[in-house]
Amino acid sequence: MNPETQLKLQAWLDGELPPDEVPAVARLAETDRDAAALVAELRHTMAALANNELERPLPESREFFWSKVERGILAGERLATGRSRPLGLSSWLRFLAPAGIVAALAIVLFTPIFGVHRGANLAALEEIESPLADVSLTTFRSESEQMTVVWVNLH
After folding, report:
1. What are residue 142's DSSP bridge partners?
2. Rounded to two decimals, what is the model's pTM?
3. Which of 17, 30, 66, 133 could form a disulfide with 11 if both were Cys (CB 3.0 to 4.6 A apart)?
4. What pLDDT score does 132 carry?
């Protein structure tokens, strides 16, 4: 049974099927074994949900609740239309002031860190200790290529 037929059976049970389709779907529910099984399962599910659904009383009347929802939607729409205009100078200043402070702080904090590595003495980096007794290492540093190559020979 395809999903469209399943949805038609469910709509038939819920009373939401167009009147011209009702006889064909009712006949299908009576003649087809899979359709009858699905209808029975849907009826059991509807009964279980109807008998076990918790009541959730609202603290205010139904009309007042939905009027609050409507006011919230309208306020959101007004807020959205207010933001659609282009940013003015004050909006840019509110953005650029904190961004400038963050950028200046990043420069002050990270310049010394990266500067030390660029001008560091690489002789200390070329010495490698190995806990393995039968390993020999050969290191080559090319200043023009800014690259260090280490050969590891296992004996």
Report:
1. 147
2. 0.36
3. 17
4. 62
Distance CA 22, CA 115 (A): 80
Mean pLDDT of 130-141: 71
Across residues 73-82, what is the average pLDDT?
Answer: 81
Instruction: Measure CA of the first residue to CA of the last residue in the chain; give whole Å.
Output: 71
- Pull the structure tokens for residue 142: 């090319």
Residue 26 pLDDT > 90: yes
The three-class DSSP label of residue 119 is coil
Q: Please report, as a single letter, which amino acid is at residue 112.
A: P
Q: What is the pLDDT of residue 51?
A: 75
Cβ neighbours of residue 34 closer than 8 Å, sequence gap 6 or more: 1
**pLDDT for residue 50:** 80
Q: Tell me the angle at which helices 22-31 and 33-52 cross, rounded to the nearest 10 degrees.
A: 100
Q: What is the DSSP letter of 40?
A: H
* Token duo for residue 146: 């800014």
Q: What's the token pair of residue 79?
A: 């807020």
